[in-house]
Amino acid sequence: MIEILTTGALNSVQDTGRFGYLNLGVAQSGAMDATALAVGNLVLGNDPACAALEVAMYPFKLRFTKEQTFAVVGAHCQITLGERVVPPQWVCHAKAGDTLVLQPPSVGVRSYVCFAGGLDVQLVMGSRSTDLKSALGGLEGRGLRRGDTIDVYQSAAFEFSGGVCAPTSVVTGEAEIRVTAASEYSEFSDEELRRFFTSKWTVTQESNRMGIRLAGPTIAPRQKMEMLSHGILPGTVQVPPAGQPIVQMADANTCGGYPKIANVIDVDIARLAQLAVGSTFRFVEVTHDQALQAQIQLDDELYRLRRVVGTAYKKLV
User: Domain containing 199: what range?
Assistant: First the structure.
């Protein structure tokens, strides 16, 4: 079991998401940085869908009430376990009574504290993820509070410890976010599309788990469009009447009526989630084949990581 000592309301329990209920108006939810969650679970020998803590407000502090193996992945922040400094993406063993502290990150936004065995919270519609907007899943559908206690499933014997070289979504410097054309792409003139792809876009303070709101030049379709609400997914880039794009994220509404200019590829949704307020980036158009190749490359890197961790474990036993 773990006990939350210091937190913020936006920190929550997340797993890979809640699928199959968009038709009922239930958002996908899940980790904003799916790559980080995958890495954290892999290095602990967990099932990829195991639930972890998503930390977006700092400092964050918890206490281990019993011995526990864990890893912190995602944003680059100072991590301490008791008096010891813990490197990022490092598998550690905590003793009962140890405290874990995460300080505000120097690069990135979201950290994931993963536990061997995963967090034991109730499944809701096949997922343990917290949907803060709908007050669904996780701990009573809300963010973490001081004094919360959460059980951890007991894992099979897993003695691997140390650091790993793993794929990361954290970007240093100006990022490039890859997109494919969306259904209303052709409703924007060549000049508007040129402006969309050559401009720098800034992540604004209004960004959250529902969507990343951007500041930059005004973008508009050739003519005003009045559209019925229709299905949208995480990664959809919509252009509202004000002309400042919104990228739908994990807790996105299941439908919306703004024209869609682009779709962020799955691999880069995680990268976008790690861009802090004030960060700038550019959109880069890619083909569907290129988007698929990017996913295959990430899957290959995760597969190699699984083999490395598995080999290290076998040497110990």
Answer: 175-286
